[in-house]
Specification:
single chain, mainly alpha, two-stranded antiparallel ribbon
Length: about 325
C-alpha cells in the first residue's frame, strides 16, 4: 500500500481531470504506487465510455497503457485498433488533435500520450518511430524539445521559417513529456532490442536537462533563467530521470537530480495541509495568445499531482520498476 501522502497527492489530482492525458498520468501513478483496487475502479470508469475520443485523439489514446496494466487486454487491443483507424499523421508522427484548427500541429505532449501505450500493447516499432520522429521535429540542437510545430506547410514554403512554430520555446513540459514517454516505452521492451538512435537522443536530452536544473527545479522555459519555475515540468522530468536511472539511462547524475527535484518541490512548493503541488504552469501554451500563461501559475493540476506521486514512489519509497516486470502484449492470435 502507498503512504498516506501519496494517496492524498493522487486524490487531489482527480479533482482536476478533464482529458485522457490526465487520466493516464494519474492511473499510471496509481499502479506504480500499488493502489490496485482504486486503480481498477478508475479504469472501470474509463471503460464506461469510449476510450478513443475526439478531438483529443492522442490524449485519449494514453488510456491504453492503464488498460493493459489492469489486465484488460482485449479492450486495450480494440482501443489501439480504433486509434490507428482514426489517427491523423503530420510530419510522419501522430497529430495531437483532430480539430480542423490544429491541422498539421505536432505537439511534444503526444510523445507521452501515444508511444508508451503503443509499446505496451505490442506495437514497439511504431512507438520507437514516434519518439524518434518527435525528437527530430521538435528538438533544438542541444536536445531540449520545443512545444508545437506546424508540419502542414513545407519549410521551403514558409515566410520566415519561425512562423511555423506555434510555440517554439523550450517549454518545460515539452522535454518532460518526451523523456517520460521514452522511459515508459523502454520499460516494457526487451533491453537487448533497444533502439540505439533513440537511446542517443535520450542521453542528449537528459544531459542538457541536468545542465539546466536550478536548485533542484526546472523552469517553464527550461533555458530561460528569467522564466518562472514550473513544478509540473520539474516532477515530470525528475520522474523520467529517476525511472531512466533504474533502467541504466541518463548517466551517474540522473538519480541524484531526481532526488534533488523531489526535495525542492516538497520543501518549497507543496502544501502539506492539502497535498497540493503549487506553482505549476497553467496550460496550454500557445504563443501570441493573451492567456493565463506563462505569467500565472496553477495549483493542483492533475499532471503535476500524478507525476509527483510517481516520483515520490520511485525516490522516497524505493519502488523498483524492474520488480513490476511489465511486459508488452504479445501479438493477438485468432
Amino acid at each position: 500500500m502507498p503512504s498516506g501522502v501519496v494517496k492524498r497527492m493522487l486524490e487531489r489530482g482527480w479533482d482536476r481531470v478533464d482529458t485522457g492525458g490526465k487520466h493516464s498520468g494519474l492511473l499510471n501513478a496509481m499502479y506504480l504506487a500499488g493502489c490496485r483496487d482504486w486503480f481498477d475502479e478508475k479504469v472501470a470508469e474509463v471503460l464506461a465510455g469510449p476510450v478513443i475520443t475526439h478531438p483529443n485523439l492522442a490524449d485519449s489514446s494514453s488510456r491504453i497503457r492503464p488498460l493493459v496494466l489492469a489486465g484488460r487486454a482485449d479492450e486495450a487491443r480494440q482501443a489501439s485498433a480504433d486509434f490507428h483507424r482514426e489517427r491523423v499523421a503530420a510530419g510522419g508522427v501522430t497529430q495531437h488533435t483532430t480539430a480542423r484548427s490544429t491541422a498539421g500541429w505536432v505537439f511534444a505532449d503526444t510523445a507521452y500520450m501515444v508511444a508508451p501505450s503503443q509499446a505496451i500493447v505490442g506495437n514497439g516499432d511504431f512507438a520507437v518511430a514516434e519518439l524518434k520522429g518527435f525528437h527530430r521535429i521538435l528538438a533544438q540542437d542541444d536536445g531540449l524539445l520545443r512545444h508545437v510545430f506546424n508540419a502542414s506547410v513545407p519549410e521551403a514554403e514558409s515566410y520566415i521559417r519561425i512562423d511555423l512554430w506555434i510555440d517554439g520555446t523550450a517549454w518545460g513540459r515539452a522535454s518532460a513529456w518526451w523523456a517520460a514517454g521514452v522511459v515508459d516505452t523502454l520499460e516494457v521492451l526487451p533491453q537487448d532490442g533497444w533502439d540505439a538512435e533513440l537511446l542517443a537522443m535520450y542521453e542528449q536530452t537528459a544531459a542538457r536537462l541536468l545542465q539546466c536544473q536550478d536548485e533542484g527545479l526546472w523552469r517553464s522555459t527550461i533555458d530561460d533563467p528569467y522564466a518562472p519555475v514550473d513544478t509540473s515540468a520539474t516532477v515530470m522530468i525528475a520522474y523520467a530521470l529517476a525511472k531512466g536511472a533504474q533502467l541504466g539511462l541518463g548517466g551517474p547524475g540522473a538519480h541524484g537530480a531526481a532526488a534533488a527535484a523531489l526535495e525542492a518541490v516538497l520543501r518549497h512548493h507543496f502544501d502539506w495541509d492539502t497535498a497540493v503541488l503549487r506553482h505549476q504552469q497553467f496550460g496550454p501554451m500557445v504563443v501570441n495568445i493573451p492567456s493565463r500563461n506563462p505569467r500565472y501559475l496553477d495549483a493542483g493540476n492533475a499532471y503535476g499531482q500524478g507525476f509527483l506521486a510517481a516520483l515520490f514512489c520511485l525516490v522516497a519509497e524505493g519502488v523498483r520498476v524492474r520488480d513490476l516486470d511489465l511486459r508488452c502484449l504479445q501479438p493477438h492470435r485468432t
